[in-house]
Amino acid sequence: MASSMMNGGYSVEEEEKKKNVNVGGGVEDVYGEDNATEDQFATPWTVSVASGYTLLRDPHYNKGLAFSEKERDAHYLRGLLPPAIFTQELQEKKLMQSLRQYKVPLQRYVAMMDLQERNEKLFYKLLIDNVEELLPVVYTPTVGEACQKYGSIFRRPQGLYISLKEKGKILEVLKNWPERNIQVIVVTDGERILGLGDLGCQGMGIPVGKLSLYTALGGLRPSACLPVTIDVGTNNEQLLNDEFYIGLKQRRATGQEYAELLEEFMTAVKQNYGEKVLVQFEDFANHNAFELLTKYSPTHLVFNDDIQGTASVVLAGLLAALKLVGGTLADHKFLFLGAGEAGTGIAELIALEISKQIKAPIEETRKKIWLVDSKGLIVNSRKESLQHFKKPWAHEHEPVKGLLDAVKAIKPTVLIGSSGVGKTFTKEVVKAMASFNEKPLILALSNPTSQSECTAEEAYTWSEGRAIFASGSPFDPVEYDGKVFVPGQANNAYIFPGFGLGLIMSGAIRVHNDLLLAASEALAAQVKQEHFDKGLIYPPFSNIRKISAQIAAKVAAKAYELGLASRLPRPKDLVQHAESCMYSPVYGCYR
């Protein structure tokens, strides 16, 4: 028997058969996840058939108390489990009760990560069925605190750590990861984690969290997701002086040393996983984020969620909001606080969409968009001293120092905050917006909650209930003047899981701006009248998998139209195909 145990437990004959089966978006179903149902049995292979204590310690296959009597006999589990048999639904109910007893969000985060490490399917079942309640636990805002304390809560590795020590050996390091069929890599260097700054190696919480959402919200298989942290050091003095810091204790490498490490990583990724693996850059500092995206977009399937994902979700909110404020996108004037990767990324996508709608050159449509950075309004007279990514936004106007003065001078209909600095949309700023707009559109996008430019309550109160408000982190509903306002959340999680699924199921080889516009339009179309009646410009997260399928279908359709898709023939019904590709967290039966 041992001689046939090859390639992760399958015989060579089985392996060859599997290579010819196109399932789950075209990637080999190593764990039988697509085929395991109540009627169709799967075998829990590791190096041999997993059984006994080994089976209980394997998160891919462990079902805890949900193992049936037959399974307990067949897999030597008698005595290793208490005699009670629970359904998955009962396990879910018990865990939700336990989670709700924790008063501190970080405790819930740790409990969820522990669950992910011992019972993968139950973790995703819990997250999918309770997405609105648990999304803030596994992602923003709680993930920010988790990254700050990652060294303390670190249990066992959940992704790959690639540091300067691995230079020249990155391909070998990738081969150390147990999974071979990787579809999505989320990578960070930890330099700009949310609005919290340089957290170095402890930024791993971000790729882990993002990929949990790729599976829960977009239906990608957990086994096809790889979180990576590139550790080139940290400039955070507190971490450098912390004896328990888990990363490299040195100042950040920059310049050629940094570029060479990233080049080796990107080359190794393509060599090991092929042309169609999606690499998502996450929480890189502005200068590196733009440079990496520009450098690798022509040669790799790359996506920067901070630049492109944020832009796509904000554009979707603006397109939906037109139903409430009236007019077309071209009729509005936009003012940004923050001219970093998020701000300029959103601005560029808005300009592209207006350009597409009115068939005008993008140089013209950019003039409807104004940006304020730390030195004031970005204008022509500052052009020489501006970073390259800010230069397209320097328009003709006299210099203006503060945000309030810029609001009064420009008179925007839309105010967007992407500064990473809390409390910057002051009472005076919001009141000024409300003075010349019947329904001022205010988006306070910075994360986590503590860094939000203003709260929902402030926006509604200071605008006398007239503002249309959305934020990056969640806020509770607000009652003002006898009316309940439900703030929307411009969360990237609306876009990137469906966007990634669309790229993968079409076999896209490059990301094009038209794919981002398609994703925005698909999300905006999911906002119904019942949501508008509550002042919402985004649909509820409770329906996120169906929303992701719609986004994936539109992105895939555009990829086929542009000739970027390699998975042929094109499926007739792309929405149905997207839904059929999605990972199911329901337990299968073991033979």
What structural category do the secondary elements indicate? Answer: alpha/beta
Using DSSP, what is the number of strands?
14
Radius of gyration in whole Å, from Cα? 24 Å
Q: How far apart are the termini?
A: 18 Å
Unreliable stretches: 1-24
Helical coverage, percent range: 40-55%
Q: Within the largest sheet, what's the order of strands?
A: 8-7-6-9-10-11-14
What labels would you give this structure?
single chain, 42% helix, seven-stranded mixed β-sheet, five-stranded parallel β-sheet, alpha/beta, disordered N terminus, 9% strand
Write a structural description.
The chain is an alpha/beta fold and 591 residues long. The protein has helices spanning 12-19, 52-56, 69-74, 88-101, 105-118, 120-129, 131-138, 142-148, 150-153, 170-176, 205-218, 237-240, 255-273, 286-296, 305-325, 341-358, 362-365, 403-410, 427-435, 456-462, 496-506, 513-524, 529-532, 544-561, 574-581; strands at 160-163, 184-188, 225-231, 278-281, 302-304, 334-337, 369-373, 376-377, 414-417, 441-444, 468-471, 478-480, 483-485, 488-489. A seven-stranded mixed beta sheet has the order 8-7-6-9-10-11-14, with helices on both faces. A five-stranded parallel beta sheet has the order 1-3-2-4-5, sandwiched between helices. A two-stranded antiparallel ribbon has the order 12-13. The longest helix is centred in the middle third of the chain and has 21 residues, at 305-325. The relative contact order is 0.10. The model is unreliable at 1-24 (pLDDT under 50).
